[in-house]
Design goal:
Elements: H1 7-31, H2 43-48, H3 50-61, E1 68-72, E2 75-79, E3 89-96, E4 105-109, E5 116-120, E6 128-137, E7 140-149
Antiparallel strand pairs: 1-2, 2-5, 3-4, 3-6, 6-7
Length: about 150
């Protein structure tokens, strides 16, 4: 025959169920962790030089005509205003992928005949990116950041 169920049994059962719940949450959350990497290996040195990034973003934000990006199945195109060219400006594209550093695309580029920079779809994987467009013109650095989903 079954013993009589007392309050002591209830407390023990509640504690047991609570411990099982906590352990299952620990195993669930640790199994769903994604790869988390630092953005750069020299994080602290880059942090000290962050004022340069702030200044570059402020300069780009004050421009009357800003570069814009267009995204389609063939890739991503960053279109610059007509007064930019390869002789007076240096361009760098940084496509940053937070989940996996191996999927980052960092490349110095030249403008094509359409006054744009093109990133083909073949180098992109599905997911979230931060597109950083950096350029130097007349010894001034500019930077614009765009969040995009490929």
């Amino acid at each position: 025959m079954l013993k009589k169920f007392t309050w002591g049994h209830g407390v023990a059962l509640a504690l047991g169920l609570f411990i099982i719940f906590i352990l299952s949450m620990i195993f669930y959350f640790t199994s769903t962790w994604k790869n988390s990497e630092l953005i750069t290996d020299d994080y602290y040195e880059a942090e000290l030089a962050y004022q340069d990034v702030i200044d570059a973003k402020a300069l780009a934000g004050a421009l009357p005509e800003k570069p814009e990006y267009v995204q389609d199945q063939s890739g991503i195109r960053v279109i610059f205003p007509k007064d930019y060219n390869n002789t007076n400006t240096q361009f760098t594209i940084d496509l940053h992928r937070a989940e996996d550093q191996k999927l980052d695309v960092i490349k110095e580029m030249d403008l094509d005949s359409r006054n744009s920079l093109f990133i083909p779809a073949a180098v992109l994987a599905k997911g979230n990116y931060v597109l950083r467009v950096l350029w130097t013109r007349a010894d001034k650095k500019y930077q614009l950041d765009y969040d995009l989903i490929w």
